């Protein structure tokens, strides 16, 4: 049991190789966290861009939606490039080692992507479509898309849709849109409910979705109650509201054309 | 959501849940084995040094039986998904590393390398994306051993073995020097490493006590 049989250099050299291993792991982790942050920032910008285009006045809704979706997709391609760049870092078994470091950015990206998709198609983007957006030209994925990130990203979409519905509620046709959105969000909430036992943190997000839904419903209620005081068709009401708004004159138009969102009661919701 | 997509999602989630259940069964098994080993090794604190080899011989078969568990886990973990599931068996795996390195130190006074621990646990190279012994887990096992050795230094003296604390002290200091070379981030490993100084202090106190009273045999001259 003599220690001299074991020259110190053996233990020291073992620890030297552990040091390399640990440093390598920590460095890679830091790089991926940074990248995830960049992806988050870029994706949030896309979401703002979509909101901004949708609150533009002038063109009809369908044109706006298509314009927003195409601009959004263009901006999202830069985000997809960021994902492509990390591919070598998350090759093989490494992906799951660093999955929780990437997942904040990934969820934010899915939120932006699904918002653009909703504006274009009025539907929820599918798992396969998201995976395809994170694949190279030949269709091989940059990394396997975790189901949990897909669902959690979609769950964040409901919050954006709420903002979208409320900011467009005073526009022409906005009430119809708000009711479409609430039907859609209700559907999402119901679909996700069954998945909550499987996905960590989903139940928290479901609670947020419920709140969002309530906000849309209350806004729709307020409008319905007020419009009942006038015996006018929805289109005429839109015109009345439109005229009242145009009375604000230049200032308001300036705000609009410079791309600023109209202030709503929900302003504080924007991050 | 399209009912078809929802079915697809549910299918994937269900199969993950299934796999989790199957892994859990093996982990419970693994846990039983490691607890048995740790319990048996606990007897070193009350075993005279002459009896220790017999004790170690009785623990080794349990250690080798862990090979069944690692093989069973490697067989059900899907390719490339090692890191997805490994948290489930962290504790058991670290306890088995602890047992393996402690047995080796008690038997030969040397450090069992990561590769040798892997081998004793039956971990095969071709499993590299499904089941491996990571550096982190190995180091956790080493720290547990150091915790245990500081206790053993005390109890060996009680049992009349005055040389053991000195051997332990040399060994642990060398390991500590190794740990000091690492750049650990603020995680559990770092916190456990920080607490090693208390173990070292304890061992030094024991060494001080036995040397002061000239209980230990005189140091052998270096070759």
From TrEMBL, chain A:
Top-level taxon in the UniProt lineage: Eukaryota
**Protein name stated in the entry:** Translin
TrEMBL record, chain B:
What is the species listed in this Swiss-Prot or TrEMBL entry? Artomyces pyxidatus
Q: What is this protein called?
A: Translin
């Amino acid at each position: 049991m003599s220690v001299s049989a074991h020259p110190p250099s053996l233990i020291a050299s073992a620890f030297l190789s552990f040091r390399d291993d640990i440093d390598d792991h920590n460095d890679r982790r830091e790089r991926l966290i940074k990248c995830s942050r960049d992806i988050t920032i870029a994706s949030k910008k896309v979401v703002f861009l979509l909101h901004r285009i949708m609150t533009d006045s002038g063109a009809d809704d369908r044109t706006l939606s298509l314009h927003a979706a195409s601009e959004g997709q263009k901006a999202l391609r830069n985000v997809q490039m960021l994902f492509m760049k990390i591919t070598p870092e998350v090759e093989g078994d490494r992906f799951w080692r660093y999955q929780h470091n990437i997942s904040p950015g990934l969820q934010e990206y899915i939120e932006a992507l699904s918002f653009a998709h909703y504006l274009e198609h009025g539907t929820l983007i599918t798992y396969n479509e998201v995976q395809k957006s994170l694949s190279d030209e030949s269709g091989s994925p940059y990394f396997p898309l975790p189901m949990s990130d897909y669902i959690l990203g979609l769950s964040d979409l409901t919050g954006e849709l709420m903002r979208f519905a409320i900011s467009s509620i005073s526009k022409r046709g906005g009430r119809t849109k708000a009711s479409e959105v609430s039907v859609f969000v209700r559907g999402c909430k119901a679909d996700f409910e069954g998945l909550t036992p499987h996905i960590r943190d989903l139940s928290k997000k479901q609670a947020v979705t419920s709140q969002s839904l309530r906000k849309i419903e209350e806004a729709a209620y307020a409008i319905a109650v007020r419009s009942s005081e006038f015996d006018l068709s929805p289109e005429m009401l839109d015109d009345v509201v439109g005229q009242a708004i145009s009375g604000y004159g230049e200032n308001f138009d300036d705000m609009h054309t410079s791309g600023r969102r109209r202030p709503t009661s929900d302003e504080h919701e924007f991050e | 959501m399209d009912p078809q997509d929802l079915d697809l999602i549910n299918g994937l989630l269900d199969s993950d849940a299934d796999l989790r259940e199957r892994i859990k069964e093996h982990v419970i098994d693994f846990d039983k084995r490691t607890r048995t080993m740790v319990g048996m090794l606990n007897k070193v604190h009350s075993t005279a040094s002459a009896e220790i080899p017999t004790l170690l011989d009785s623990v080794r078969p349990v250690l080798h039986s862990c090979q069944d568990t690692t093989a069973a886990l490697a067989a059900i973990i899907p390719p490339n998904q090692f890191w997805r599931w490994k948290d489930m068996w962290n504790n058991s795996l670290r306890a088995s590393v602890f047992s393996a390195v402690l047995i080796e130190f008690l038997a030969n006074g040397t450090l069992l390398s990561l590769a040798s621990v892997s081998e004793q646990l039956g971990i095969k190279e071709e499993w590299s994306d499904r089941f491996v012994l990571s550096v982190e887990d190995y180091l956790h096992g080493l720290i547990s051993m150091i915790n245990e050795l500081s206790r053993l230094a005390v109890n060996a003296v009680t049992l009349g073995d005055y040389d053991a604390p000195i051997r332990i002290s040399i060994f642990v200091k060398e390991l500590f020097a190794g740990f000091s070379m690492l750049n650990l981030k603020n995680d559990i490993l770092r916190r456990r490493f920080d607490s090693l100084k208390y173990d070292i202090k304890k061992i030094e106190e024991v060494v001080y006590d036995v040397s002061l009273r000239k209980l230990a045999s005189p140091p052998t001259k270096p070759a």
